[in-house]
Amino acid sequence: MPHWMKPLACALFLFASMLFYRASAQEAAAKKKVTSDADLPRISYPLTGSASDLLAADDATFDAFTRKVTADIDSILASYQIDDKPTLRGYLLAKFNAQILAGDPKGALATINKVRDLEEKPEARITDGILSRPLLNAWIETGSSSGPAFASTFLANFQKEVNALPWAAVQDTVKELKASFQIMSPSLFAGSYKANVDPQVAKTGSIDYSAAVNLLSSRVVVKFQLPLKEQIEAVLVPYIQAHTEKKPDIWATREVTLTETEKLTPVRIGIWDSGVDTALYPKQLFTDPSPGVFGPHGLAFDLDGKPYVADLQPLTAEQTSLYPKALELEQGMDDAQNSIDSPAADAARKYLSTTPPDQLAPFLKQLNFLGQYMHGTHVAGIAVRGNPAARLVVLEFNDGLPDLPFAPTEEWANRFKADFLQLGNYVREHNVRVVNMSWADSQSEIEQWLNKTSTEKDPELRKQFAAKIYRIWKEAVEGAIRSAPNTLFVCAAGNSDSNPGFLGDVPASLKEPNLLTVGAVDQAGEETSFTSYGPTVVLDADGFQVESFVPGGTRMKFSGTSMASPNVANLAAKLIAIDPSLTPEKVIALMEKAADPSPDGRRHLINPKATVALLKNQAQ
């Protein structure tokens, strides 16, 4: 997902937020135990026409679809014991939206009121239901979900709800919500479905469960929330304007900047990502004197897993022409999200909310690639910041698996397994001491890929084949990490507010002595709404509005665990530049010992200044 889409995604799911289903011990005993995402059933829904048409269909047509999805949700909740809270919330979020669409505001309100105290993140506990409760209560009080009386009652309820929020804890969420409603429109939803879902329907004649429940959510937003856009902005804008104080930024005082006058050892940092605009880092670049079939700055593999000479994924002529527009949108959405009134913000809001779907869809489809295209360069800038001893090594491949234009095969997977083993050997042989991996792949992602490209209509058969591909892919990543035991691999936890272990995300779910998984916090050290978490997530770092370069040299602020991970890789490389004798295990131990745990024990914030001081004190 392109970074500028994050505010939109936030608004789509904030409406229903987190849901909870409580089963008795007797019920649980009779259910099938779920230990991973792969244990859950796979479902698909035949569609006549397109998903974008269904989204805009009349109530009778959409209600028939909703009933089918609701029956499957109820069956899963009745048949499976799902202890993983994020997964359970996902199913219940879908049920909640179904309740709204079925005209059951009391049932929906009862559901949302059960969840607040079960949310694991402190900020989410506060913001859960801030939009849905006022809407549902207005519906119950007026007996209608539309009309002047309903809108007036919602306005009063929403104002009361928002004004009671503690600004210090909710400012980021509230700003994102305002920005989302300033860009959302039926046209934007339709364009997104035309770009991302309709091609799947055209090929297979169906959509999978994930796309189906997203349709329910989108229908709720379009039918119930967007008509209240004026009232929502009337509350959020003055609330934000009345609170000018910002969260404290803890990271500036923790930063460590090394200088060329210090006795440093050059340290090679691999960016295993979508490629790097190496022209931006001429003094922090590794050059291989004998590159062989690859380029002088590292390895690159094309979509088929074949080697080629490049530092950055190439753009087509169309993508090249669209790239400046993508940068403008990135900047505009960043300004809008931070409540900065600027020409860029106005232009982004206007373009996304008013462009007809047929014109918007091709651009949104290209943005899927352009977002990834920017990714590796942005990550690289974070990884080498403040370290003149850093030497970038490019390890390039395209991780946008669901967007690849062909169906996966075992031959393709085994070719990449050989590629990744070659990559691991290259890292070991060229003494690359730190590798950043700001990406993740899971069996469900491979299923999404098959959903878009395979002619197989049975979702369970697609699941079985995806499991084969996933096993090969997992072995490939594990093999690369294990083949370079003196290299510290640092990876992102993921942005799905989930447990990567349950999802089987690779590499975030893996446990290796030279692998470290990182979660994202904001400028004040508080958990971001998107960061995944769980037993494999060892440290947390700044992953909110982190500034770095994108290809061409523009500086942009992106959010994600993709940005938190290279902040940890940055610290690890600085430690090794100071003391090259450090092993991955010792680097991890230093960072863990100097980290600052949160009072609730959920977070362990890296402290670069304290970690470097600890290393230097040990050397004395």
> How many beta strands in the DSSP annotation?
15
CATH third-level topology of the largest domain: Rossmann fold
The order of strands across the largest sheet is: 6-7-5-8-9-10-11
Question: Tell me, what is the CATH class of the largest domain?
Answer: Alpha Beta
Distance between the termini: 47 Å
The gross shape turns out to be globular
CATH architecture of the largest domain: 3-Layer(aba) Sandwich
Instruction: Summarize the amount of helix as a percent range.
Output: 40-55%
- SSE-based structural type: alpha/beta
Sheet bearing the most strands, described? Answer: 7 strands, parallel
> Stretches where pLDDT falls below 50 for ≥5 residues?
1-28
Strand fraction band? 5-15%
Quick one: CATH superfamily of the largest domain? Peptidase S8/S53 domain
Average pLDDT across residues?
91
Number of domains: 2
Using the CA coordinates, give the radius of gyration.
24 Å
Pick out its properties.
2 domains; globular; 10% strand; two-stranded parallel sheet; Rossmann fold; disordered N terminus; 53% helix; 15 strands; alpha/beta
Written overview of the protein:
This protein is an alpha/beta fold and 620 residues long. The protein has two domains: 3-178 and 209-241, no CATH class; 262-317 and 364-619, Peptidase S8/S53 domain (Rossmann fold), CATH 3.40.50.200. The chain is built from 24 helices and 15 strands. It has helices spanning 6-14, 25-30, 51-55, 59-79, 85-101, 105-115, 122-127, 132-142, 148-163, 167-183, 186-196, 198-204, 209-225, 229-241, 317-337, 343-354, 357-384, 410-429, 443-453, 459-482, 500-503, 561-578, 584-594, 608-619, and strands spanning 32-34, 44-46, 80-82, 206-208, 267-273, 298-300, 390-396, 432-437, 488-492, 515-521, 537-542, 546-549, 555-558, 596-597, 604-605. The strands form five sheets. A seven-stranded parallel beta sheet has the order 6-7-5-8-9-10-11, with helices on both faces. It has a two-stranded parallel sheet with strand order 1-3. A two-stranded antiparallel ribbon has the order 2-4. The longest helix has 28 residues, at 357-384. It is globular and about 75 Å long.
